[in-house]
Amino acid sequence: MLKIENTLSRRKEQFKPLGKEIGMYVCGPTSYGPGHAGHARTYIAFDVIRRYLEYKGYKVKFVMNITDVHDDIFKRVEKENTTLHALTNKYTNQFLSETNLLGIKKADCYPRVTRHVEEIIGFIKILINKGFAYSKDSSVYFDVSKFPDYGKLSGVEIGETLSGTRVETDKYKKKKAIDFALWKKSKPGEGLGWKSPWGHGRPGWHIECSVMSQKYLGEQFDIHGGAMDLIFPHHENEIAQSEAASGKSPFVKYWLHGGLLTINGEKMSRSLGNYITISELLMNYSPRLLRYFVIQSHYRSPVDFNKDAIEEAKQSLQRIDMFVHRIDKIALDDTAMRTEGGCEIVKVAVEEFENCMDDDFNTPATLA
User: Fold this and answer.
1) Cβ neighbours, 10 Å, residue 246
2) Mean of the per-residue pLDDT values for the chain?
3) Beta strand 133-136 with 139-142: parallel, antiparallel or unpaired?
4) Is pLDDT at 336 greater than 90 in this prediction?
5) Cα torsion 39, 41, 42, 48: sign
């Protein structure tokens, strides 16, 4: 019996899908630079979860968005004197190539924001008509005070101080600090953007995932995943705008969040000089070793990437390879299968593996 730690309920729950096909959505990359080690950790972890669900016999429809509209992207386009599509296509193609090298299964769909702007505008209109959003100075904002369940995922309360969150970066003329942008007006002289009923502009960050997940998985689906740092404000805001628009709750039944990755005990950043790209990882380590390094830790746990840890993973993987080689020899020898209880060894190993994975995808326990 599979049980999953649900961020929404803050407890471990028996997995009961909504229908015959599991809808699974994982927040994808923002295409303004190369993927990094933290991305690799997150997407390998959710690939393992997806594969285990399929191993259990579930049919999984897996969707991962590509964020190709974002303030950081627009800044990079201007800085590099290039076009939006040239920049985002470059890094999207690089990401897809590198995740393929990492052994990550392709998603059933990789929707991009630029291809869903009309749907996003339509979704915003619904929120305005229902009284959950307002237009001000050619931008549109979600009125958090109109959604009573706001904070049910993150535990954040409307009156709390939001210092240190990405809410502070959203410096537009909204009524309240916690309100978030659904549509951002273009800045003076900025040619990038789209026409809308509220003026020339672009979608906000959070609205894309609500619109694209619902288009491909429906107004309610089974699993939504991402890294821990997306719980607030991104996923909290997704819930608010999605449930406000559809009138259905829950928007997502199970919320899964992966732990963050550090480098030698420090947060990875370019300013600290410890920023590692996926391409750099692949130049130095095999994809198999990187995948093993990831599954040594539970997907919800933080992971520190350092030379000692990767060397330890390498040695552990070698020991496993030796054990598998021994099992293969036993399996090919009918006498050994009978005298050494080979069949029973394999049967017990499979049962133990499934028991561990059924406990919130406990990969480190499977390796113990």
Assistant:
1) 16
2) 92
3) antiparallel
4) no
5) positive
Measured CA to CA in angstroms, residue 136 lies from 31, 183, 199, 308 at distances of 29, 10, 11, 54
**β-bridge mates for residue 263, sequence order:** 266, 305
Contact predicate 242/224, CB 8 Å: no
- Which residue type is seen at 259? G
Distances (CA, A) of 75 to 33, 127, 275, 311, 356: 12, 29, 20, 39, 45
Torsion of CA 111, 35, 46, 215, to 10 degrees: -10
Q: Which two tokens stand for residue 363?
A: 């990969």
Class of domain 3-263: alpha beta
- The half-sphere exposure of 26 on its side-chain side, counting CA atoms within 13 A, is 27
Per-residue pLDDT tens digits for 150-173: 999 999 988 764 544 545 445 556
Residue for token digits 């999984």? 60
Spatial separation of the C-alpha atoms in residues 344 and 135, rounded to whole Å: 67
* Cα gap 177→195, rounded to integer Å: 26
- CATH 3.40.50.620 range(s) for the chain read 3-263
Answer yes or no: are the C-beta atoms of 66 and 112 closer than 8 Å. Answer: yes
Q: How many other CB atoms sit within 10 Å of the CB of residue 195?
A: 10
CB 46 within 8 A of CB 257: no
CA-CA distance, 24 to 213, in Å (whole number)? 9
User: Tokens in use for 132?
Assistant: 């959950």
- Alpha-carbon span 219 to 208, nearest angstrom: 14
